[in-house]
Task: inverse folding
């Protein structure tokens, strides 16, 4: 081996670089190690150790996550995936009958402050006001300095607000899980669904009446409401309120077999997300809380009572040529026929005089008992807290004058739910109807104690059809759908408890298809004004009847009820009118023109 290779190998031999023990390598042999070098070496060693520990921890965690992902059961509470997807809010959803969500709770984040941990309250206040300018500065200043463990700063932060506040990095600010109630249908279902406070406590509507069930339930609460029909009724009623410059309106659709309310609209309405900004009038439910003298729609009950008693028959006639004096007042007809009219004509022409004569023959006791069986003298039972009690005369005051005025809907005030439920029973073979806002899965069995006989019910369906074809509700006709009903136009009571003939409640209640009754549709307008198209009239036949017509024409196809062709409708109409007899039907001419069809007012002058 050559000496120069050996010498070179010996010169390259490196010793451990330990300061104070061995000399540094040739390249660093000019100086000894310093304290700085020592500290740097120690730091490097610790860093290497930390990296190794982090690597080990990462390996363990990754393995654990992989194991859980591959081998955990779907319901295993140790699975992170299960914890996320199974998470529920504290209040269950409210849906319509088809499962469309009407109210739901969404997880949110709320911000609170632990004043004991805030290092610089002034700086924290300045930055929070910049991120959340809607905060009350004085209250925020107090919350950041009051020493409380958790002072609530803002509930329900938006994702953007949460990001901005979190980015501030202020010690002492804490985020808490929260939830907020959301109403996807907005004002369209506001009076039915209601709303909650900021802590999700029900304050109105179903949210209040079913508060415990919504808090403790495990599955959504299904209402009877059909959002499609609710939207149709809302649209048509809103258009009528605007067109006739009415103060408001009410509309309902009910399934006569089950009592399920498929639509309930009250106008004006409000945004349930911000109920505090709504007026008292907007929050007022005209379908349930408002009680009104309904006018001639009550002639349905007066006529059904008379026919079912057996004391009066559809062909019996009464003198309507002369007004009836009641004390210092007179019962008159606004479109007098000035002749004797049979029961069918009294009903079709909406004669107040004729209705009063029929009620006289029945007497106060029979009338009061009959209205009681229809649920018109007691508070309606329905799943809402906002229900008004009817204004009913005391039994001792229910004499002959009251009997006569009640026959055409004055002297007694009820709500729309009561009227709709009572008419549903009249057209459905007398089967009692109990209104509900909850979805039913089946049709109840027939009640052995109907409020009227099936025979009387068939007579009433025939009379209600004549009102549409030959009476005051020609505007309610719908091609392909056999509809019948009754108009009502009642003068409103003024502040001095006198009737104001220039302010009225105009309504129409209809049922269809009359050959096999399924639905009752009701519309009411509060003090509508006549237009040039209605020749200045604002009665029920001009204002409310078209609303029902438009609703029925749209809801029929939606409910799998295609319109009948002309031949089938004619045959179905014969079936409906047959119980009245040809003498009654043929003896009632079809009047031309539509002006008469809406000239109606029900009042005591």
Result:
């Amino acid at each position: 081996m050559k000496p120069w290779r050996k010498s070179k190998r010996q010169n390259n031999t490196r010793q451990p670089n330990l300061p104070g023990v061995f000399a540094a390598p040739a390249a660093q042999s000019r100086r000894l190690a310093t304290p700085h070098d020592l500290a740097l070496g120690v730091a490097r060693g610790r860093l290497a150790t930390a990296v190794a520990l982090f690597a080990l921890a990462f390996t363990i965690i990754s393995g654990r996550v992989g194991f859980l992902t591959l081998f955990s059961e779907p319901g295993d509470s140790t699975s992170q995936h299960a914890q996320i997807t199974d998470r529920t809010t504290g209040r269950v959803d409210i849906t319509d009958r088809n499962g469309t969500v009407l109210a739901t709770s969404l997880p949110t984040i709320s911000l609170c402050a632990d004043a004991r941990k805030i290092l610089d309250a002034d700086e924290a206040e300045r930055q929070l006001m910049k991120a959340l300018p809607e905060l009350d500065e004085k209250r925020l200043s107090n919350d950041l300095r009051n020493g409380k463990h958790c002072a609530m700063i803002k509930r329900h932060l938006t994702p953007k607000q949460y990001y901005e506040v979190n980015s501030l990095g202020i010690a002492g600010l804490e985020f808490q899980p929260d939830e907020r109630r959301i109403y996807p249908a907005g004002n369209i279902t506001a009076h039915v669904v209601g709303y909650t406070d900021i802590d999700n406590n029900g304050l109105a509507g179903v949210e209040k009446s079913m508060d415990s069930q919504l808090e403790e339930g495990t599955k959504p609460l299904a209402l009877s409401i059909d959002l499609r029909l609710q939207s149709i009724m809302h649209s048509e009623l809103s258009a009528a309120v605007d067109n006739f410059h009415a103060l408001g309106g009410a509309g309902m659709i009910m399934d006569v077999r089950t009592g399920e309310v498929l639509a309930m609209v009250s106008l004006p309405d409000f945004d349930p997300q911000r109920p505090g900004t709504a007026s008292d009038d907007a929050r007022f439910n005209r379908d349930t809380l408002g009680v009104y003298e309904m006018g001639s729609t009550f002639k349905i009950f007066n006529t059904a009572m008379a026919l079912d008693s057996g004391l009066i028959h559809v062909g019996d006639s009464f003198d309507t040529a002369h007004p009836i004096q009641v004390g210092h007042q007179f019962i008159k007809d606004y479109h007098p026929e000035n002749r004797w009219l049979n029961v069918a004509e009294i009903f079709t022409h909406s004669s107040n005089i004729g209705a009063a004569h029929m009620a006289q023959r029945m007497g106060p006791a029979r009338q009061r008992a009959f209205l009681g069986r229809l649920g018109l003298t007691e508070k309606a039972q329905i799943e809402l807290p906002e229900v008004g009690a009817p204004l009913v005369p005391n039994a001792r005051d229910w004499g002959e004058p009251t009997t006569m005025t009640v026959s055409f809907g004055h002297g007694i005030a009820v709500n729309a739910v009561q009227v709709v439920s009572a008419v549903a029973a009249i057209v459905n073979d007398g089967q009692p109807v109990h209104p509900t806002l909850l979805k039913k899965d089946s049709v109840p069995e027939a009640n052995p104690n109907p409020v009227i006989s099936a025979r009387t019910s068939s007579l009433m369906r025939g009379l209600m059809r004549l009102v549409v074809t030959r009476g005051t509700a020609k505007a309610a006709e719908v091609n392909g759908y056999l509809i019948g009903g009754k108009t009502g136009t009642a003068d409103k009571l003024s502040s001095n408890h006198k009737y104001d003939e220039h302010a009225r409640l105009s309504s129409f209640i209809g049922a269809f298809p009359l050959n096999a009754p399924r639905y009752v549709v009701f519309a009411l307008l509060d003090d509508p004004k006549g237009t040039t198209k209605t020749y200045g009239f604002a009665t029920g036949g001009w204002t409310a009847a078209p609303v029902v017509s438009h609703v029925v024409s749209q809801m029929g196809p939606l409910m799998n009820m295609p319109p009948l062709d002309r031949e089938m409708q004619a045959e179905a109409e014969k079936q409906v009118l047959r119980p009245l007899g040809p003498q009654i039907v043929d003896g009632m001419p079809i009047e031309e023109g539509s002006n008469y069809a809406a000239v109606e007012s029900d009042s005591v002058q």
Confidence is low (pLDDT under 50) at residues 1-32, 67-87, 593-599.
